[in-house]
Amino acid sequence: xxxxxxxxxxxxxxxxxxxxxxxxxxxxxxxxxxxxxxxxxxxxxxxxxxxxxxxxxxxxxxxxxxxxxxxxxxxxxxxxxxxxxxxxxxxxxxxxxxxxxxxxxxxxxxxxxxx
Length: 115
Prior knowledge:
Distance between the termini: 29 Å
Domain HTH cro/C1-type: 30-60
Strand order of the largest sheet: 1-2-3
Shape: globular
Helix content: 40-55%
Low-confidence stretches: 98-103
Number of helices: 6
Protein name: Helix-turn-helix domain-containing protein
Radius of gyration: 16 Å
Largest sheet: 3 strands, antiparallel
Number of strands: 3
CATH topology of the largest domain: 434 Repressor (Amino-terminal Domain)
InterPro entries: Cro/C1-type_HTH, HigA2-like_HTH, Lambda_DNA-bd_dom_sf
Number of domains: 2
Oligomer: single chain
GO molecular function, one term: DNA binding
Pfam family, one: HTH_37
Structural class: mainly alpha
């Protein structure tokens, strides 16, 4: 039976969980993210209802729809946040594109991470 990422992280010893969280901040590609969450392309394909070759192509793309990226991340148990940053203003998280009440402020002290 597949395990949820939150359950897996909760089961790790504190030091291992800290190392995983630090490593997650260093990730640069979708492949890195998938491998860090211990998913195979075949598993991702099954969850997303596509072929393994589609996952391979998706991971090599440099441009894609946000909905595609969100679906990919959520299939691993994650959450995708789009953060807008302006000089001299706090970061803003866009939760739902195209919805008027879709923006909430992020506290200044948090530093969003780009992947």
